């Protein structure tokens, strides 16, 4: 018969709070978004990143 050896297991658990911000995804030009049936494309511009719908930034 095998003898069972028991050892306690200790864990150091940390719950970290994530601080994030959420922005609505909408076209920089017309304000239409995913909920309106448009696809959205991000474009990096000199002053930052802008989002455009498929009407104002058509992909070919």
Brief overview:
The protein has 60 residues and is an all-beta fold.
Report what the structure shows.
The protein is mainly beta and 60 residues long. Helix content is 0%, strand content 20%. It has strands spanning 40-45, 48-53. It has a two-stranded antiparallel sheet with strand order 1-2. A hairpin with a 2-residue loop joins strand 1 (40-45) and strand 2. It is elongated, with a radius of gyration of 25 Å. The chain starts with 39 loop residues before the first strand and ends in a 7-residue tail after the last strand.
Specify Rg, calculated over alpha carbons. Answer: 25 Å
Hey, roughly how much beta strand do the residues contain? 15-25%
Spatial strand order of the main sheet: 1-2
**Amount of helix:** under 10%
Contiguous low-pLDDT stretches (5 residues minimum) are none
Number of helices: 0
Q: Distance N terminus to C terminus?
A: 73 Å
Give the biggest sheet.
2 strands, antiparallel
Mean pLDDT: 85
Oligomer: single chain
Shape, principal axes of CA atoms: elongated
SSE topology string? EE
Q: What structural class results from the helix and strand content?
A: mainly beta
